[in-house]
TrEMBL record:
It comes from Marinobacter maroccanus. InterPro entries: FAD/NAD-bd_sf (IPR036188). It comes from the Bacteria. The lineage of its organism: Bacteria, Pseudomonadati, Pseudomonadota, Gammaproteobacteria, Pseudomonadales. This is NAD(P)/FAD-dependent oxidoreductase.
């Protein structure tokens, strides 16, 4: 039968073909002459981006997302909107196109990558076609690479944890653009990035603010996107973010001190100064985004939604009535995998578990893991360079991830080849610029010094606070 699966042999069997898998294979193609078999349940590369809502964008600049070998976007600065003055954020479609083009134009033509879409990895080298049901064995010469560790829950594919009565319109944001004009009121459920994106899209498209209700079960701390800009113009602010963060981590007496310190340094933002956030998913927003989001007056902070019927919502801390022609937008998917708190080692015998080793930077992390796999044989050094820095749900989770991140960074810098890789790696937002700071640029040299000097105390204190939090 044409297209029928057969048994395979490969150096690396990669489970998943999302952003993590693509960044790993890309760097391995440059650093080795190995072969790769990439298996994914989805029909196309790009992982969760295949099921994203139409108005999704990256929340970090495109210029440090994707893979090392290919620039994403045009590195232009936005001239309008709430990202005005800052580097462009790729749309979901751009991200997908980027990965598809990379597969078609670079990976497949290399002759070293085979991609099996619509196939599921079942363990023990067994791959099953979701279309034909045929099962095939893969002989792995070197390693199995699990690129599903971060697998995020997104609205289109998750199962909501609340009941919806018959006749109530509750849909994922994927349907918002189509249905919004048909409803007199819209209630957005969820205070994370997807909720923010949905509110922003409605406001940008002139849906009246007073017809929008926003259910925010937990408020969130956000990174200030101003401090995460790759260009020279704001590089001083990025360095100040690094230096001041370490000083705050080192001096804090409590988790609250960290939050307040980060806020007063301008590193973190929140929606409302009178509400204490507990969530930390490291979404990046601008101050203009906060101003825009504050146009919504009807914010319900009564915990999570438990049930919706024609009269309104039951939440964990009360009830809220709704008008009859209300469209509910489900933005409650957690954006974290079920095992996000799992500190499984990256290098584990014949398996590599791709996960962040630089907190909230999955692309850079996977590329660097590939570089380490290809170039460093010393097992103790590998482990020291790759302490997991998992994605975070709360500020408390962030403490350990950030401490591991700083410890990893120390080992990367101490190893000349790795330091050189980082300097030339487009996925590291600042390494290249840091390496090129002029000796007579006293301000930046002093920021760099502050960052390095406070790092050991920061690590120690982050662990102490995590243990007591
Ligand atoms: C809306 C949104 C915006 C984001 N913006 C940013 C951003 O700006 N910057 C940033 O760094 N991060 C961002 N993220 C985080 C994002 O999750 C990561 O950047 C990245 O896309 C995660 O990729 P991944 O490959 O690890 O996981 P996924 O994209 O989830 O890919 C995992 C793949 O594994 C496949 N799979 C799982 N199990 C199996 C199996 N047994 N057999 C076969 N295949 C399997 C799945 O089908 C899936 O395609 C964003 C996330 C969301 C939801």
């Amino acid at each position: 039968m044409e297209g029928k699966l057969m048994d395979y042999q490969t150096d690396y069997l990669i489970i998943g073909s999302g952003a993590s898998a693509m960044a790993f294979v890309d760097t391995m193609l440059t650093e080795t002459d190995a072969t790769f078999l990439m298996v994914d349940r989805r029909p196309k590369v790009g992982g969760h981006w295949n099921d994203a809502y139409p108005f999704v964008r990256l929340h970090q600049p495109s210029s440090f997302y994707g893979v090392v070998s290919r620039v994403l976007g045009r590195e232009k600065i936005d001239e309008t909107g709430s990202n005005k003055g800052f580097y462009e954020l790729a749309t979901g479609i751009e991200v997908l196109h980027y990965y598809h083009a990379l597969m078609e134009e670079a990976f497949i033509p290399s002759g070293r990558v085979k991609h099996l879409p619509l196939c599921e990895y079942k363990g023990d080298g067994r791959v099953v076609s979701l279309m034909s049901g045929e099962s095939h064995n893969v002989k792995v010469n070197k390693k199995l690479v699990d690129a599903t560790h971060i697998e995020v829950q997104i609205p289109m594919t998750h199962t909501p944890r609340f009941e919806v009565a018959e006749g109530v319109a509750c849909v994922p944001p994927n349907l918002l653009c189509r249905l919004a004009p048909e409803y007199g009121h819209i209630t957005v459920l969820g205070g994370g990035k997807t909720g923010i994106d949905s509110i922003s899209w409605l406001l940008d498209n002139d849906y009246p603010a007073d017809k929008i209700t926003w259910v925010v079960p937990r408020d969130s701390w956000f990174y200030n996107r101003r401090k995460w800009q790759p260009g020279e113009a704001l590089f001083g602010e990025a360095l100040e973010l690094l230096a001041s963060s370490n000083e705050i981590y080192a001096a804090a007496e409590s988790v609250e001190d960290i939050c307040l310190g980060m806020e007063s340094a301008g590193n973190w933002l929140r929606l409302d100064k009178n509400v204490w956030p507990t969530m930390f998913h490291a979404a990046l927003v601008t101050e203009a985004d906060i101003v825009k989001l504050n146009r919504i007056n009807n914010i319900i902070r009564m915990g999570r939604v438990e049930a919706i019927d024609e009269k309104g919502m039951r939440l964990t801390k009360g009830e809220a009535s709704s008008l009859p022609d209300t469209l509910y937008i489900d933005c409650t998917a957690s954006a974290l995998s079920n095992n996000y708190k799992d500190f499984t080692p990256v290098f584990q015998q014949d398996q590599i578990n791709l996960q962040p080793i630089f907190v909230w930077q999955p692309c850079f992390s996977s590329a660097l893991i590939a570089f380490i796999e290809a170039n460093i044989e010393d097992e103790a050094l590998r482990q020291a360079m790759t302490r997991p820095a998992p994605l975070t749900d709360t500020v408390k989770d962030y403490l350990t991830s950030q401490a591991h991140n700083l410890m990893n960074m120390h080992h990367w810098q101490e190893h000349p080849e790795t330091a050189r890789f980082m300097t030339n790696c487009r996925l590291h937002a600042f390494a290249g610029r840091i390496a090129n700071i002029r000796a007579d640029d006293h301000e930046k040299q002093s920021q760099l010094q502050r960052f390095g000097q406070s790092a050991p105390n920061a690590v120690e204190n982050l662990f102490r606070l995590a243990a007591n939090a």
